[in-house]
Amino acid sequence: MGMGFHSRGRDNAFYEMKEALRQYFIAGSISVTITGGLILYLTARRGYFDLSIINKSLASGSLVLLGIVLLLGPLSRFYSRFDNWINYRKELGILAFLTGAVHVYLSMFPLARRGPFGLYQSRPLVAYSGLLGLVIMAYLFIISFEKLKEKIGMAKWWKMQYWGARITVLAIFIHMAVFKYPEWNAWLGGEAGKLARPGWPPASLLVAIFISFVLLTRLSELFGAKAARFLTPVWLGTAIVTSFLLFNL
Ligand code: HEM
């Protein structure tokens, strides 16, 4: 009996590890697909490839993953088709942190023209809003370990994840929008510079449209589940049409 119990425990631990690996594999594939897609898009748009393109793609990839993390809650609640997707929320969040961390490293070291703290001095709002996002994600990552989760207590832990994820998306959205606004404005005004495909919108603008869709979907929930269920496809339609129109300006 004792033996049976122990081997069952071992089987369970094995099964859990296999399941965790499977979830990381799927979340990792999603992350690689998004970042890879952004690398291809930026390379085709500019007509060259360099480290700065990898940096931008990791940065935008991290924000898209965060957007998906925030979207999974309402999607799984509104539509049964997305029920299982919620399982990947934690892994996607951790990958958003890791890709974001590589972006911060590349921005502060190999790509920094005025040293690691140059941007903090010249553009404090841009740099510190990004740093705030990274620090919160690092904290959420650390407390995601089971032992700390138990120590903090489930109710408080969920509250921290809930608010942490929201503040992070807002902080990174500000980081990107304040930084990129002049470039978006110039492109919308017809100044494309030396681009191989000047008709293609900046990737960061398309990412901003996706994040606006996510934020509108979450805000709609304030008006109740029924309103949100109705409004989500409306926001999605608006985001798709807007993106499509940008390609045909
Ligand atoms: C995890 C936190 C962060 C995320 C998710 C993030 C995300 C982003 C995004 C989406 C962009 C626009 C990418 C594009 O141009 O297509 C960007 C640009 C940039 N970020 Fe961050 N950021 C974060 C933290 C930081 C921090 C702390 C710094 C401080 C040095 C920083 C420095 C930069 C720089 C220099 C750019 C411009 C890159 C370029 O135009 O080549 N970021 N970031």
Give helix and strand order, one letter per element, not per position: HHHHHHHHH
- State the distance separating the first and last CA atoms: 73 Å
User: Strand fraction band?
Assistant: under 5%
Oligomer: single chain
- Mind summarizing the main beta sheet? none
- On the 0 to 100 scale, the average pLDDT is 94
Shape: globular
Strand-pairing-aware structural class: mainly alpha
- Structurally, the number of domains stands at 1
User: So how many helices?
Assistant: 9
The low-confidence parts are none
Report Rg. 20 Å
The helix fraction, in percent, is over 70%
Number of strands: 0
Query: What small molecules accompany the polymer chains?
Result: protoporphyrin IX containing FE
Question: Your description of this structure?
Answer:
The protein has 249 residues and is mainly α. The chain has one domain. The protein contains nine helices and no strands. Helix 1 packs across helix 3 and helix 8 runs antiparallel to helix 9 (225-247). It is globular, with a radius of gyration of 20 Å. The site of protoporphyrin IX containing FE (HEM) has 25 residues, from helix 2, helix 3, helix 5, helix 7 and helix 8.
Features:
249 residues; mainly alpha; 9 helices; binds protoporphyrin IX containing FE
How are the secondary structure elements laid out?
Blueprint (H helix, E strand, L loop, with lengths): L1 H45 L4 H28 L10 H20 L9 H5 L1 H19 L3 H7 L1 H35 L14 H18 L4 H23 L2
